[in-house]
Each structure stands twice: as C-alpha cells, then as structure tokens.
Amino acid sequence: MIRQLNRLLRPVPALGPGVIAIATYAHPSGETFEVREAAESGYEGVACVDDAARAAIVYAGIWRRHGSAWARETAEGLLAFTRAMQVEGGAFVNFIATWNGERQLDTTTSYPGGDPWQARAMHALAYGVGVFDRPAYVDAFEAGLPALSAPTPHLDVRALRAIAVFEYWQATADSSAGALALAWAEELAGTAVEGILPDRAGSDEVHLWGHLQEAALARIGRAFGRNDLIQVAAQSADELLVPVVLRAFGGARSLAFDVSSVIAGLEAVAAATSDHRYIEHAAAARAWFDGRNAAGRSVYDRTRGLVADGIDGDRVSVNSGAESNIEGALAFLDVLPWDSPPLTSSRWPRIETRMARMPTSGDAAVTALA
Q1: Whole-angstrom Cα distance, residue 153 to residue 329?
Q2: Contact yes or no for 338/2 (Cβ under 8 A)
Q3: Domain membership flag for residue 29
Q4: Rounded-to-integer distance, Cα 70 and Cα 285, Å
C-alpha cells in the first residue's frame, strides 16, 4: 500500500516549496501502471484534496507510531498541498487541473467549500495539529471553520466534521471545538432509524464508503463520558456494520473505502464499550483484503505492495489508484510494521503519468514516478 502510494506521489512546486500531491488513478500497462486523470464528471483533474488529506493522515499516523522521517516528510508535503488548496474565506477547492498546479475553482467536483473535501481537509489539518503542532495548521483550521459549519444534508459528512473538530479539541483543548463536536454528535445520534445511523436525515439509505457515524459517536461519547452516544453507536454497529462483515461485504460492489470505514466504526465502538467481539468483527472485516470477500481473492497484493480498486461482482479490479491504497493503509495502520522505509527498488512495477485529455505543460507527457 505505501509502496503504491509512494509511486503515485509527485511534487507540485508551483504551489510552494515541499508541496506533494498524489495522482488519483493508476491503470495497468504491461508491467507498469499509468497514472490517469479523473474525468468521471467531465474533466476533473490530476490530484485532489480528497485523496491528499486522507493520505496525509496515513503518513502522519506512521510518523506518530514509529518516528519514521520519510513518513513525516511526506505527511507535511501532503498537508502543504492541502493548505495550498484553501482559498480566501477559508474554504477548500478539491482538484488541480494539471501537475503545474492550476486549481479547479468552479467544476462540479472542485469548488470552494464542497462538503467532502472541506471535511477531509479540516480533518487532516486537525490531525496535523495533534501530530506536528504547527501554528500554520492551526491558522488554516481556524480559517476553515465557517465553511465547515455550513448546513449539510449529508450525515456521513457531518460525522467527519465532528471527528475533525473533536481531534482539534484533543490537540488544543479549545473548548468551543469540544462543544461543537459534542453538539454534532448529539445531532447525529438523533437521526437513527430503527437503530441504524443513516446517511441522510429521515432516510434509511446507507452507503458504507465514508460512513463514520458510529466512529464519531463512540469516540466523542467515550471522551465526554456520554454513554447515551456510545449506546447509539453500538446499536448501529450491531444492526448495520456487523451484518455486513458476516456477509463478507457481499453484493454488487465492495471497496476498500467501505471496509476501512466499517473497521473504524467497529474499533471505536470496541474501545468505548470494552466489548471484544467488535475487535473480532473488525479483524474479520480486515480479512476482506486477503480474500474474505465476494471474489474469494486477495485485493491486497502484498508482493507488489498495492491494493486493487475494489470488487465488482466476483471480479477484482486490475486498477490501483490513490483512494484504495489510502483506505487500505488506514485499515492496517495499527497492524502492519511501518517502521522501515518502503521498498523503491526497480524490481517493482514503474508507474508513469500519461495525460490522455489535458497534457501538462512544461513537463514531458510521460514521466516516471517510481
């Protein structure tokens, strides 16, 4: 996972010294991978805050656990990219159009203050404050609070917002951040439908990717001694998360993002309740990566150090982009030994950048990354 992420990293000096972004998609080409731009909703760009912010948490988490200098350097480069995508007023845009750093300011997946990337950027900054204690991260977080607090119908986003301000409170003891985390947790708890925490108020529809409501309530409830919040989280874990794990994430499609979100919820509930069965279910969920899934095949290629882009039916994707490897790394953050630098030997597949629709200017059209 880290090997593939390292292959996807690329400096963006136009956005500032030390700025690092991560390519969105990687498709196989013989013995190599080719980096592809995102173009699912029209042309989107080559790299985004959605990915960089989550990857920053991965590398910062490795630094926090093991003190690995390579992880710190990468985390701070990704946080520098995240900060560079903050515009006047504190909102974040999501994509850069090319590797020359042009920010996409008015597309459907990249405009100031979009729910997912605003929440993920703020979460990364809060985590960065806790790990690195840099005033620049504090300033960026404080500037982004108004946009983070805007109304949203998306309860999964609200959960991530709650986690972001909760971690900021943990890092700074800022009482207003703690109060906001608790208020948002109480709001989430009040939306449960027949014991399940939904993704929109009044709806029973749930998608697992990014579904962090149980994690938010369990973590905040534990910190503030709110057993009522913990119980809502535990019931939703029992009604929603555990059955999904018992079915081995069976269905038309499953993603690493689904699995990592379920693991985050189960582990948070386990820590808040001291009920070991949630740890057992989290371990069973993690086994999705090694073949306990609808395809009966490994999604995590341990030899090549990469995670495939999910399962459709019984078919494992041949692609391996940023999100799959980020979410895989988050799922294994407390499991794998991260204390040694990842292999970068030439015996691993090379990844190349090929811009099919919007070539970069100034750089060669095909550039080796690893």
Answers
A1: 29
A2: yes
A3: no
A4: 29
Amino acid identity, position 36: R
The DSSP string of 219-263 is HHHHHHT-HHHHHHHHHHIIIIIHHHHHTTT-SSEE-HHHHHHHH
Structural domain of residue 219, as residue ranges?
A: 175-294
- For the chain, 370 residues long, the average pLDDT of each consecutive 10-residue run is 94 97 94 88 94 98 94 97 97 97 97 97 98 97 97 96 98 98 98 95 89 98 98 98 97 97 98 98 98 97 95 96 98 84 42 41 28
Of 190, 111, 179, the residue nearest 145 (C-alpha): 179
Written as six digits, the tokens of 163 are: 């986690």
Q: Name the CA dihedral angle for 25, 29, 34, 38, rounded to a multiple of 10 degrees.
A: -40
Total domain count, the chain: 1
Q: What is the pLDDT of residues 75-126, one digit of tens each?
A: 999 999 999 999 999 999 999 999 999 999 999 999 999 999 999 999 999 9
Q: Measured between alpha carbons, how far is residue 67 from residues 61, 91, 128, 339 in Å? A: 9, 31, 14, 8
Phi then psi for residue 298, to 5 deg, are -70, 135
C-alpha distances out from residue 76 to 4, 24, 61, Å: 19, 19, 12
Buried b (16+ CB within 10 A) or exposed e, 42-67: eebbbbbbbbbbbbbbbbbbbbbeee
Contact 293, 307 (CB under 8 A): no
pTM (two decimals): 0.92
Burial of residue 135 (CB within 10 Å: 0-12, 13-18, 19+) is exposed
Nearest to 336 by CA among 55, 25, 58: 58
274 is a domain residue: yes
The tokens describing 181, both together, are 């985390």
> Could you tell me if 60 and 53 are in contact, meaning their C-beta atoms sit under 8 angstroms apart?
no
In a domain, 139, yes or no: no
Distance of alpha carbon 43 from alpha carbon 24, whole angstroms: 13
Q: Please tell me whether residue 349 adopts helix, strand or coil conformation.
A: coil
238 assigned to some structural domain = yes
